[in-house]
Structure formats: structure tokens, C-alpha cells
Amino acid sequence: MPWSPDVAFLSGLDFFDDVVRSVGPQDWQRPSPCAGWLAVDVLGHIGIGTDFGTKLLRGEQPEWHPVDPPGQAVSGDPAHWWAVKVGPAREAVQGVDLAQERDSPRGRRSIGQGLSFPAVDLFVHGWDLARSAGRDVEIPDDAIAFAHQVLDPMPTERMRSPAVFAPEVELPTGATATQRFIAWSGRDPR
């Protein structure tokens, strides 16, 4: 059975949290697969978005203030900075009405729609963060299927843009499902 947006988001939080816990203090300043970003920038990007989403789910109207580079939002120990965000995000999603509509930076949309892209982001950037630390992780098949369900309907010119994904990377035959997905997201998994 396909994942619902809340299940995908909670699973993505778990996936990303597991990766954060595995990153050593020496790894946060390493380059990431995201052009121009360090590992700490990947963490900052996800943390900023997670905070914003948590506030929206609680019925607040947060303002969107991106930081460039996003790692500048991270204060103190990066793993601890993330740890104080993940619990409230999980609580905010529990039992949420996915059909309820809220205002967002992309206009009025359902909570289910609002959780979908951030759920995908948690898996893709979890992979980025692991790769920054020199690790390989496997993205669950259910997460890959959910990502395609969310992103395949998106117009190519919108999806293949600097704000979303670079062009797909070609891989030799025999690539794993994770490698194919990561290549589809515009990253080279080799």
C-alpha cells in the first residue's frame, strides 16, 4: 500500500535523524553533493524547513526567512541542534488531518500536499548528508515510490531547476534502486 504524506514524512524524519546521529563532529564541514553546500548546510536547510513546517502544522503563520548558506542557522553542536527540532516535528504530524487546508508560501494547500515535498527532501538530503560523511545509505523502496508519486506529475521545467533537481545522471546497468533514484534526483551516486 502506498505511503500517505504523514507516513512518508515521519519515515523521512526517522531516516534523516539516523543519518544525523551517524555524522561525526569532523564531518560537518565536509563538502556535500549539493553544489556549494557543506554537510552543515544540508542540515541547516532541513532544520529550517522542519521548523517552518512544525509551526504551520501547529496552526501558526511563520514567516519564511531562508539563510544563505543554510548552515549559518545551525548553532552549537549540529546533532543537538537537529535533535531539538525532530521531536516537535513528529508530535505536530501525529494525527493531523491531511485534508485540512493551510496558507503556505506556495499558496493555500492541504496539509498532505504541504508534507509531501518535505518528506521527499528528508530522504534525498539524508542521502546527501551520509555521502558528505563518507557513508552510503539505502533509501527504502516505499520512499522512492512515494517520491515518484509526488514528483512525476511535476512539469519537467519546474522539477529540473536550481530550486529542485539538476538533470538526471546516467548510470550503467546494474545500479541499485537507491543509486537509480539518486541519479534521477540529479546527483551522481558513484
Description of the molecule:
The chain is mainly α. The chain has one domain (5-184): dinb family like domain (Four Helix Bundle (Hemerythrin (Met), subunit A)), CATH 1.20.120.450. It is built from seven helices and two strands. It has helices at residues 5-22, 39-57, 78-93, 111-132, 141-151, 156-159, 177-184, and strands at 101-104, 107-110. A two-stranded antiparallel sheet has the order 1-2. The longest helix has 22 residues, at 111-132. The protein is globular and about 45 Å long. The relative contact order is 0.17.
Short description:
With 190 residues, the protein is mainly alpha-helical. It contains seven helices and two strands. The protein has a single domain, classed as Up-down Bundle (Four Helix Bundle (Hemerythrin (Met), subunit A)).
